Amino acid sequence: MILTVTPNPSLDRTYEVPSLDRGEVNRATGERVDPGGKGVNVSRAVAAAGRRTIAVLPLGGAPGALVAELLDAQGIEVAPVPVAGATRSNISVAEPDGTLTKINAPGPELSAAEAESLLETVRRQYRSGDTDWITCCGSLPRGLGPSWYADLVARAHAAGARIALDTSGPALLAALRERPDVVKPNAEELAEAVGRPLTTVGDAVKAAEELREMGAGAVLASLGADGQLLVDDSGAWFGSAQVDAVRSNVGAGDSSLAGFLIAGGRGPEALASAVAHGAAAVQLPGSVMPGPADLDPAGVTVTTEIPVDRVLTEPVS
């Protein structure tokens, strides 16, 4: 069972348009409404794979009620933490060439009591079942300081839990001191964490190794169209898959993390599962999470022969 924690969930509306014309009336050809937030997406991907998951998240107002309703409809157990502010609503506009324009609301400000209640709910849910992983994902809402994730990791480790962390900036750096078992940055977040540009796959490998030196047990790094890296105490692997057409990359990294954890959260087999889930996700509309029928494991390549000199398709400055 995978327990996810999403401190700043959202209600996500995705519109598909032939093209986005700024300042003009744009007519959508497709529309979706999904529960959002990185941890929520991990739970959705885990549930799509037929595995049990519990989503811990603060919810408030009508948007929060709809998020809980949508998650329940997808077979996800919800452990809500009631908050005074309304859950945020986000908008994404997807174009046929894969270009995605996002407008993310800030979300509610949590009180000190609500922040503590969120931590307590995680503790209670972990102790009530056979949890394989606690997965902490996304940005922190207003009211939660950068050390909030670090506090959660410390408490979870004290209880014997394994922690996967997907966040960035000061929250990531603070949490690394508590040695999360897995962190999952993308290329931009890797560059931010080490404070320098990433131009090649080799640059990304070095950055991942530095995150391990800072405290991460393993680093699962998404490099967009260039593939994914896994760096842990036994070495480094590079995974890639052919993608014919990108429809939407919303939630692709979250789907990758779910695939990694579903496959055990360690080693090349887990990386292969992560790559398969990520490749499937980008070919689906909005933030739809792939199920087993969407995966193409045979199309995934995992190797220790890392193309260190390959220039990243989207270098990070």
UniProtKB/TrEMBL annotation:
EC top class named in words: transferase
Segments crossing the lipid bilayer: none
Catalytic activity, EC: 2.7.1.56
Stretches assigned to the Carbohydrate kinase PfkB domain: 16-287
CDD domains, alphabetized: FruK_PfkB_like (cd01164)
Matches recorded under InterPro entries: 1-PFruKinase (IPR022463), PfkB_dom (IPR011611), Ribokinase-like (IPR029056), Tagatose/fructose_Pkinase (IPR017583)
SUPFAM superfamilies reported in the protein's UniProt record: Ribokinase-like (SSF53613)
GO molecular function: 1-phosphofructokinase activity
Keywords: ATP-binding, Kinase, Nucleotide-binding, Transferase
Family under the similarity heading: Belongs to the carbohydrate kinase PfkB family.
Name of the molecule in the record: 1-phosphofructokinase
Gene that encodes the chain: pfkB
